[in-house]
Design goal:
Number of domains: 1
Structural class: alpha/beta
Number of helices: 9
Helix content: 25-40%
């Protein structure tokens, strides 16, 4: 019932912006658990986004950091997918394999869904931002994001600045220094890391802003096109919710950046 309610909400919001003859499609997958929102054929821009909600690798904030974004991205012509990845429990391969399978599904469906396999990006919020940036900095054939969108992401697993629950969930209680460095995304940036959009708030008390700052610094040092917006107020975990006071400004800046891809 919860899933059906979310689908109906997204479709209702979406339909209010469309002519009566235009109909979006919503497709559901179980392995991995993923919902794909397809805009009408005549609106598609050939690009797609896979969204990874946050939750500290202990739960998923799949609503405001996932499903609620669907009408926004569909209106811009993007095929939009939300993945409810399995929680790692200290085994990083579990959620990463889910994301790789999502890329495979979108790539295999590229012709039918009118998207280009080389124009599939990834988006993540908080711990989902850590997962998204981990995928972006560890590209593989068939799972190589064309761009990344990160909201208040966990980037570093260094104990002095990380989000402890995210670190423990991804690499366990007592990781080696090598593991910490390998899965701190700011340490893994290379010249071929994809273009990046980062948005966060300076008063975030859950995930320290230095995470995003270190990542942006690494991107710039490696000549990766990057944009970062730090808003003075808003804290953590706002997603697509209207209570975020800088929401409209953030959406305008994100829209402008997406049009440059």
């Amino acid at each position: 019932m919860k899933k059906l309610t979310l689908i109906l909400l997204a479709i209702t919001l979406w339909l209010t912006t469309l002519p009566l003859k235009s109909q979006p499609r919503v497709l559901e997958f179980q392995n991995p658990k993923m919902m794909v929102f397809l805009p009408p054929n005549n609106m598609r821009n050939g690009k797609a986004i896979i969204a990874c909600p946050g939750g500290g690798y202990s739960h998923l904030a799949e609503n405001h950091e996932g499903y609620y974004w669907a009408p926004f991205f569909n209106n811009l012509g993007f095929v939009y997918a939300v993945v409810e990845y399995k929680l790692p429990g200290g085994d990083k391969s579990i959620p990463m394999n889910d994301i790789k399978q999502c890329f495979k599904i979108l790539t295999d469906s590229a012709t039918a869904w009118r998207i280009s396999p080389d124009k599939i990006g990834i988006m993540g919020s908080s711990a989902g931002g850590h997962l998204a940036s981990s995928i972006a900095t560890h590209p593989e054939e068939g799972c190589n994001p064309a761009f990344q969108i990160l909201f208040y992401p966990v980037i570093s697993l260094d104990s002095s600045i990380t989000h402890r629950g995210t670190r423990k969930g991804f690499i366990g209680e007592n990781p080696s220094p090598k593991e910490v460095e390998e899965w701190s995304s700011n340490k893994r940036v290379k010249h071929n890391t994809p273009p990046t959009f980062i948005a966060l708030c300076s008063d975030d008390k859950v995930v320290k802003p230095i995470n995003s700052i270190l990542y942006y610094k690494a991107l710039i040092e490696n000549n990766v096109p990057a944009a970062m917006f730090i808003y003075p107020y808003g804290g953590h975990g706002w997603g697509y919710r209207t209570k975020f006071k800088q929401r409209e400004q953030m959406l305008q800046e994100l829209t402008a950046w997406l049009k440059l891809l």
